[in-house]
Specification:
42% of the residues lie in helices and 22% in strands. It is α+β, with helices and mostly antiparallel strands. The protein has a 4-stranded antiparallel sheet, covered by helices on one side.
């Protein structure tokens, strides 16, 4: 579903609305392995250590026991919400939105000032910057076909707005651009 025909003459309104959900199977193997280890192995080890160390200790005065419990809860929450739970990418003529459990980034389509693909050795990453400094960065977790559709849609948007689509900018440069936004 690659968008076509959305040129400056056709305008933004001629862009189709696309909605994608990330999938765990689309992440690279190292990310999947780290997520499984952090989501299952680390909590199991921490809880096992907690139960082994608990007899004969005062739960309320022993910081090590509390650290083990905190790690057993926080680590899987962070990793599973980042990679295990599907995120939604919505590209519409009105807005570009990235949503995890709650909206993480939203830019009005007409307010886009920069579109870029970021050079990374193992994954495809897209970044969109708004005139007000807001940004949306997404890509990992989408299938190859979805990434191709996103690229076509973003190229059409850049053409419609008369802005440059910067291809394969270095990761360090992208981090500097998108970190400045602070949003």
């Amino acid at each position: 579903m690659t968008p076509t025909g959305a040129t400056a003459a056709g305008g933004i309104e001629s862009l189709p609305s696309l909605r994608f959900r990330t999938a765990f199977r689309n992440y690279e193997p190292s990310v999947r392995a780290a997520t499984l280890v952090a989501g299952i192995v680390v909590p199991a080890v921490c809880i096992g250590l907690f139960l082994w160390l608990l007899p004969g200790r005062d739960l309320f005065d022993d910081r090590l026991l509390w650290f083990l419990l905190i790690i057993a809860v926080v680590t899987p929450v962070v990793f599973l919400t980042s990679h295990g739970i599907p995120h939604t990418v919505a590209l519409t003529p009105a807005a570009i939105e990235y949503r995890e459990l709650r909206p993480k980034g939203r830019i009005q389509t007409r307010g886009v000032s920069l579109i870029a693909s970021i050079a990374h050795p193992r994954r495809v990453i897209f970044g969109v910057l708004g005139r007000g400094g807001e940004s949306v960065v997404f890509g990992p977790g989408l299938s190859t076909a979805e990434l191709d559709s996103v690229r076509g849609w973003l190229l059409s948007l850049a053409s419609s707005l008369g802005i440059e689509f910067r291809e394969n900018i270095p990761l360090a440069e992208a981090m500097a651009i998108f970190a400045r936004t602070g949003k």
